[in-house]
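Entry 14. Structure prediction run on the chain below.
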Amino acid sequence: MIVVSAASGAFGRLVVDRLLEGSPAVRVVAAVRRPDGAADLAARQVDVRHGDYDDPATLRTAFAGADRLLLISSPELDTARRTAQHLAALDAAVAAGVGSVVYTSFLGADTQAEGLTAAHHATERALSTCGLPCTVLRHPFYTEAFVHPGLHAAVDAGELTDGTAGRGLNTALRGDLAEAAARVLTGDGHLGRSYDFTGSLWNHHELARALSRVRGGPVVRRERAGRAPGAQGWLEDQVRAGALERQTDDLRNVLGRPPATLDEAVAAVLARP
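Output returned:
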């Protein structure tokens, strides 16, 4: 039996989809904060259980009987609270007698203990001492943080405004990362391993050309004069500093195929209104 925590989130639902498509005979359990919001999963013969990261007792019940647990990292942004949630989930996994744990971490969490990776670093350390066999899947930023429906405006204007100075990005699509997680959960030879997942390196010059190819009209990249507001500006700062240029073959190897191309990602996004 495979339990997927945070299964009602965008990534969790994709993992459940891949598990049901690839291994119909596998019993899938969805541990969710609000079971009434996962009626669609229950309708697909998924066992929906109450599993709240802030309520360890529910996690012990939700994880009971799991041969493998996919511990999807909490969306909580506060490091202390996020770390506490993850450690409570690991304690619940041990108490429930889970066979093994697969954890979705973040690139660099094995060596960096501050900022975005702080909670992941603490969780990876706890995993190494909890006594359960485990696999760590270190994710990059999602491609969807950059390739999103807002690009319709760039196509209409014929201009892609960008503040990354043309530096490379090693993002990956949620769908590819979900398929990789499903393969690890249902395959052999992954216990005790850590994977650094990245997609194919790309930049916004290539994104502008991909937009032109997919839509059949010219789109040019223009450097933004000032810093983008909010989270987008922070992401662009990371790119300009070269923090997203690391690339590995781990995702390709686990998938058994190349990750989605930039053209495929653009086509999928622009197909949506």
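The two ends are 38 Å apart (CA to CA).
Filed with the rest of this week's runs.
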